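Hi Y.,

Following your request, here is the sequence exactly as I used it, all 93 residues.
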Amino acid sequence: MATETEQTDTARPRRKVREGVVLSAKMDKTVVVEVTRRSTHPQYSKTVQSHTRYYAHDEENTLKEGDKVRIVETKPLSKLKRWRVLEILERAR
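Below is the corresponding structure, written out as tokens. Let me know if you'd prefer a different format.
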């Protein structure tokens, strides 16, 4: 018989969470979110920005370009979609 502590040891790892801006909302129930990362250059010690675009699932189809959102990693939903919108942080003006 397995105890409760043994069952919790096999729990899933935490899902990745990112914050970004909606670049495109032209597809049905899909948005393109750009996430900006800041890191220090190893040689020059200057702060460098890099951008990554993620395709995220928007179930309500309510997002517009410029909205700030929080996305979370999920199972593959289509060829490119591996993220879904968790919450809307700020609406575009």
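Residues 17 and 93 are 24 Å apart (CA to CA).

Thanks again,
Q.
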